Queue: 2 jobs
Job 1
Amino acid sequence: MSTDLKTAAQRVKDSGQADLWVKPSLEQIDRHEGRLNCLLSSDRNDVTRQLESLERRLKDGGESLPLAGVPIVLKDNICVEGQPTTCGSKMLGNFVPPYNATVWNKLQEAGAILVGKANMDEFAMGSSTENSAFGITRNPWDTERVPGGSSGGSAAVVSAGYVPAALGSDTGGSIRQPAAFCGVTGLKPTYGRVSRFGLVAFASSLDQIGPLALNAEDTALVLNCIAGYDPLDATSSEEPVPADLADLAKAPSLESSKIAVPKIVNELLSADLLEHFHKTIEEFRELGFQVEEVDLPYMEESLSAYYVIAPAEASSNLARYDGVRYGQRPGGLDYENISELTTATRSQMFGKEVKRRIMLGTYTLSAGYYDAYYNRAQKVRTALRNAYVSTLRDYQAILTPTTPGPAFKVGEKVDDPVAMYLSDIFTVSANLTGLPALSMPSGAHQGLPLGVQLLGKPFSEVSLLTLCRDYQKATQHHLSRPAVYS
Amino acid sequence: MSTIAANPENQTKWEMVIGLEVHVELHTETKLFCSCPNKFGAEPNTLVCPVCLGLPGTLPSLNRRAVELHLKAARALGCQIQEFSKFDRKNYFYPDIPKNFQTSQYDLPLAYKGWLELSPGRVIGITRIHLEEDTGKSTHLALAGNELQPSRLGKSDRTHIDYNRAGVPLLEIVSEPDMREAEEAYQYVDKLREVILWLGISDCKMEQGSLRCDANVSVRPLGQRELGTKTEIKNMNSLRSIRDAIESERVRQIQVLESGGRIVQETRGWDEGSGTTISMRSKEEAQDYRYFPEPDLPSLVFSKEEVKAVDDLLPELPAARRERYQKAFGLDTDAVEYLTIEPFFGQFFESTVATGADPVEVAKWMANTLSRLSNELETSLQDSKLTPVSLGELLSLIASDEVGAKSGQKVVEVLFTEGGDAGSVVDKLGLRQLSSPAQLKPILQEILNENPAVVAEFKEGKGKALNVLVGKVMKQTKGAANPGLTRSLLEELIGESI
């Protein structure tokens, strides 16, 4: 699909041909999926049913259908009624939810067609999609490399040209980091901007669903469809969704506004990657933006705070998978008591990383450790938010690299969890503070895409996407495609 | 009951300390975090949805009505309201909590520092009242042959879980360790129940589990400030069992201490059959609940104005109403106790008094006649056809001697079952008293003429003879003659005839 989403949907409406984009999408999936393993399911009968329904709606002609006939992929932790929702875990290997996530209800209303559900790190815990119980997803730019994670499948399907847009979830960078690794644009909205109802929880106070696409305008259009208050999610915001999201092209340019770059970035990047980042800064300056270095405290502490809070919440959220209702019972019913059954199920159905984080979280919430870990992490969180909000009073956005480096090789970091965690250093702040942040392609390093992150004030998605749009207007980075894309 | 008593000489040496945790299910239309009906007695697992079953991806949405009822109870029990409070997760694995955590309140409960008066001058402190979701209900069964029968915990072959109760809004009301006798614990729960029922926020049925009570019991040498080691008593399913269990536990603890033992901090279950408490689990195996703030729900914030709005809508509570009735109407203790059994009684009473009836008489009629009718006919006063206006009218007819007190009983029964106004019912039944000498005299004269022998007896000084004559008048008038007037007129007529 070589056009923007708005035009694509319009063509479907004009032609009345519901499968105009879905057909090539399915063909592209069939061509490359054997090698890339981006999807955990792709129910073709269901696609046919969705297309029939869309055809009827197109004939009725009464609806606006901003995503008419647009093929879309959802991360496999987003519930779709009647479709498996595995979260990349054996524990939910046979779980079929009897309800839709609010985001899928909204995308369906907009006319989108679900063509598959994306692979992910188990329960969204990971930065490489290697923690999936159902195989590794390959980076479309280099199949020896990971696509990032945890929304690795969602980033890879956009990068590989399966679909023009996908949804992921972002708890500590899980949309932005794979977007950077796969050379696409990905946005983590402000906490509360998008309903979490139907998103299988990892860390409830950090999780947020967001779009991945090929450019700022498409990202905005998808966000516009899924954003807004939802009575089923008490943490969703009643803040109105700005009209500019639906048509980002018309949003006024923010040229000459100020952008902050935290000084600490200089210490965290290798020389060649730092050089690359400075090129990006120059590109912004050439566009007329004032880019200034600032002191932004707590970035290093934020990683520690994140790895206390996220596992703590996860240990509680994942407690429901106890062998009574989910997963399989490895020993049938041959258990002395309920505790044995639960232990056996959890030991065998959860992967290594999930178990590691459940143990971490259980520990930090325990009596005697709570104040030293969880409480202190919450204090860091408050201090971090104050520091960010204060900086953002003077600057339109905070610019950093999305990751310390490009996609790493499969297997390179699986045995070194701390090295894996360090790749989240630039991204976790947005989750801890609840602020919106996007990643966009900023060129390549040794043939692999790199990304930069723009982080902004609460509910400033339009501003961030406008900055991204203006940057993409002036540069070509977001137009680079891997060979598999065609 | 336990038959072994502690050494009587040592009885006064020990003081018991009791604190109670009472759970009350709020009577809302729907559950706390979803729109499933909140109802008792439905087929197991029929009142459930993805939210209260804790299916992956579902989220709680708070039932504001439950919070309103919580505030109402809190203010009625004299509690302070936390301006900023929040929900927390209490984490523990048990199959009857679908998410393996219970959403509750930990360090910032909505309400704290309240009180409840057991009797004038005897006040029990309330530490806190918080809102939480109820769990499902486990039924433990054991195989006896091929049959499944209820079994004791830990001895079961099967456990059946009913999630209908999961997510029902539950108030936990924690008292201070202020009670010293089992009887006080009984009174505390009884008074608490009265207030909750009065507010109409729960049906408080212990047998259905909508009111549940756990007791923390310890003993210490009289005069010692430091508390003794406590045990927690569960499984008390009636007010009486609360009293009996606590008393039995007091005796047990004193025996243990007097025989040189020490009390183990543990949970004990009340066994109605043996009349003793039985160890269930010791605190060493106790859970670490790993509380932390519930991230799926925003915090609760209440301004002073909002709290005042709750106060303004609070009804007069039973204790205050009793005091007012005694002062304003001169009623005795029994009467005011009766009139505050339920809010409607007081309304009925006051409306009847407003028609001009004598308050003492109204109270007497309500506590005696109406209470009896209500029981006999199995119809509550509220559901009966009797209105304050018709009762007031009847009482005024009685006061003016137009209806006899006995006839009044017949009239009120008709008013209770069929309604209508008192005057017409009196006339329909022909119960209006003959109360004027002009109406009575011809009838009396006739009786005197017919019974010269009796008249003669009376004249000879046999006072009882007059009763015979009154009886005959009553028979003649079918009870409508005013008895007092009849007596004096008969005496007058006989006197004239001398």
Job 2
Amino acid sequence: MRSNGDFEDPGAEPTPWPQRVLDNLWLLLVVSIVVPGLLYLAWGLWELAELPRWAGA
Amino acid sequence: MAATANAPELRTCATTGFRVDESGRRLALAYAVAAVLMLAAGGVMAIFIALQRQGLPISDDWWYRLVASHGATMLLFWLLLFEVAALYWGSTMLLNARMRAPRVAWGVFGAMLLGIALAQWAMFSGNATVMFTAYPPLTAHPLYYLGILLFAGGVLVAICLFFANVVMARRERTYEGSLPLVVYGFAAAAIIGVYSLLTGAAAYLLLFLQSVGVLTEVDPALYRILFWGIGHGAQQVNLAAMVAVWYALIGLTLGGRPVNEGLSRFAFVLLIAFIHLGAVHHLMVDPGLGTSHRIMNTSYLLYLAVLASLIHAFSVPAGIEAAQRERGIGKGLFGWLVRAPWREPGFSSLVLSVVYFGFVAGVSGVLMGTMQLNMLIHNTLFVVGHFHATVVSGTTLAFMGISYYLLPLLARRELVGTRIARWQPYVFAGGVALLTLAMLAAGQMGVPRRVADLGYADAPVGVTQFGEGAVPLMMTLVSVGAILAVVGGVMYVWVMVRTLLVGERTDAPLANLALRFGPTAAPPPAPASELPHNGLKGRWARFEAPGTYAMVLFFLAWFVVLYVVAHFNLAQSWPVG
């Protein structure tokens, strides 16, 4: 947490790319949906779909 | 962070120096008050649930109603309402920004309260005794599912408003550069919440459609994999919000900051990417999922999220130590800790939350995420002990700690009951420690969770093993711990309610707490690099936070010991050869 009095230096160097990545909330939102969406959900649903059906069903 | 010239209508808080938007303040206050009321209700239920174990005459039917409502009230309503309060506080006050679409936000608040009322009615009237998980083929009244859907949808809209606040704050240049770390942590919680709420909404929508006759059946395996997106995911929202609160408390109580802010941000990103995969550890005995899916997600990929927790577990105490050493407080390896402000409720809550979350909650969670070890304790009281350690000792205690600062700031009133507040974290943490350790031990002995009668009196064949040996003692300790924790909870609610009702109105609250943040706080005496390491010599003096380094080594040793003990127990249960 920073207080009100801290100002950025207007002549500061450009933001490094790793920091830009960390600052990109939309990119992080996509990652948060895609990673579990594929590894947990899609993979899990695929495994359920592959289960053999009980003959009596 | 730059003060903005674009929002002249904002008030400047005399205590923190932040610019305050009244709409955001009122909304955050309303959510925080609703959250505290939910905590009080959940605590009352906890007492009855615990005392039933000691002979309080509560029918099995009512015990299950209480357990169902206690779970939803605490895990969903209390925590998520408080987190929405934190999101609105973080995205307005901490960014000197305005609240967007306040009328929509108030409408959403009303819808969420309606959702809570519907769900509570269904649970207490005996129309939704389906427990927190609500697994089909158990069925509940449609209004239960509708209530949960209204509440979850409300949280999702609140998250959208949080992002709107952040985007507009950026556009209006109310802050420059990266988001402040605390707000970044709240953003991580919000991001984690999106996937969690979407999967949860999908799961409950299926059951709602079944309950009104649109669907004839819901596949239990499909439901379970969707449900644990929110069942586990909601707890990870709590985790990220709790860590953000930890950093906020370091700033408020010590004027400190993390020793490497970039590393802390990276740890939040690891949580965002990988923490949801831990949901599989709830499905370890699910017959539909293959071994590869379960082991890959829990025993391999989840460790990337565990790494994030380990980074925070180092960064938070290191931030405390660095802040103390900057002021030249304490000599030797741990003098900074001994002379820390233990009488400040925010600080004691912070330390107790961090220590208990790391040593008990985190380690027990990682053990449960190991497939072979999970087989020993699945569906036992061990699981209940684990999640009480995470969301009660960890998250709830951290939220209580920040409340002592947040509610007076939001209500613009002086804190009432400072003496009670100083003792409250210790009483509450002590009770929950006893409660959770006894639960973990009972679970190791095989005591099942969610069973009203451990003697199975109505079953064709009764069970005697849970009335013998150390089990009755453990169950008594569970009840004693619960009572002590509820006493701590009552102290907290008492201070909050008294502050809101009779606290002296002021534009500069928190005068009766030792705040080391804001325009009136004294700056550190000198930059850290110019200070000696307070008497430390040799190899320890090379580290910026040598005391934390020593504690981390101890923590890793503790981790290894518990892992070895757990595998030894496993070997005793399943001898090979």
